[in-house]
Specification:
285 residues, alpha/beta, TIM Barrel, eight-stranded parallel beta barrel, three-stranded mixed β-sheet, 11 strands, 18% strand
């Protein structure tokens, strides 16, 4: 069933678990996500970055998500990840996304607040939930790139002002994760997560979570993280499965036979993440 992002994440916030938000670019990824959610009885968020939307088209992503949600027995939200383009965000609102992220984190605080406020007012007017980011998360995801030296952690006092003045529904925080593959083991600032949760009392979002050790993820969830973004791990599972199949079956040219094993590999990774995040069995009717 299709629901708002706020409905999913408020439930996670109130019940102490996290919901996986998995990036999609094609049909097989959508199918893998929904199959894993059904198998684990987990609420789930299907999300697409601006790069994903440029590849597949806003309408295609939206319709695939809505069909998947309509036929699913678990709650499903469709989310825009890292929206930096006003027109793109408006297209998502018009095409049935139930959650959008306005990412103005590369601006100074006051400008970030102004831009976020503008999107929040429009999105809330049509019943769509809003995520924003405060602080700068390092790494690269499609057209969003922050050099490691420019990454900054979320300041709790600024976060209180930001949430109060923008009216957002959930906040993406910078606490030591990064987009893309890690060169070493990421070190999360757990004390900062705890303080932000206590001061904001709202759903918190962890970006750049692919490759973060399981024990760190579980601790972050116990301290108040409620939405966890996963993209790179899914891409790597897809790549490995396709590569293995093609190397063993060089004469096979049927896309269904090539991509089918990749869909299964992605589903397995996604289901493991859902169990790790604590969302297994948390779906409501």
């Amino acid at each position: 069933m299709l629901v708002s992002g706020k409905e999913i994440l408020n439930h996670a916030h109130e019940n102490g678990y996290a919901v996986g938000a998995f990036n999609v670019n094609n049909m097989e990824q959508v199918q893998a996500i929904i199959e894993a959610a059904e198998e684990t009885n987990s609420p789930v968020i299907i999300q697409a970055s601006q790069g994903g939307l440029a590849y597949a088209g806003v309408e295609f992503i939206a319709e695939m998500g809505k069909v998947a949600a309509k036929n699913a027995s678990v709650p499903v939200a469709i989310h825009l990840d890292h929206g930096t383009d006003f027109k793109q965000i408006m297209l998502c609102l018009r095409n049935g996304f139930t959650s959008v992220m306005i990412d103005a984190s590369h601006y100074e605080l006051d400008e970030n607040i102004r831009k976020t406020q503008e999107i929040t007012e429009m999105a809330h007017a049509v019943g769509v939930s809003v995520e924003a980011e405060l602080g700068k998360i390092g790494g690269t995801e499609d057209d969003v790139s922050v050099d490691e030296k420019d990454a900054t952690y979320t300041d709790p006092e600024e976060a209180e002002k930001f949430v109060r003045e923008t009216g957002i529904d959930y906040l993406a925080i910078a606490v030591g994760t990064a987009h893309g593959p890690y060169k070493g083991e990421p070190k999360l600032d757990f004390d900062r997560i705890k303080v932000l949760k206590e001061r904001l009392d709202m759903p918190l979002v962890l970006h750049g979570s692919s490759g973060v050790p399981e024990e760190s993820i579980k601790k972050a969830v116990s301290l108040g993280i409620n939405k966890i973004n996963i993209d790179t791990d899914i891409r790597m599972a897809f790549h490995k499965a396709v590569k293995e199949f093609v190397s063993k079956n060089p004469d096979v040219y049927d896309p269904r036979k090539i991509v089918g094993p990749a869909r299964s590999a992605m589903k397995e990774i996604i289901a493991d993440k859902m169990r790790m995040f604590g969302s297994k069995g948390k779906a409501w009717k």
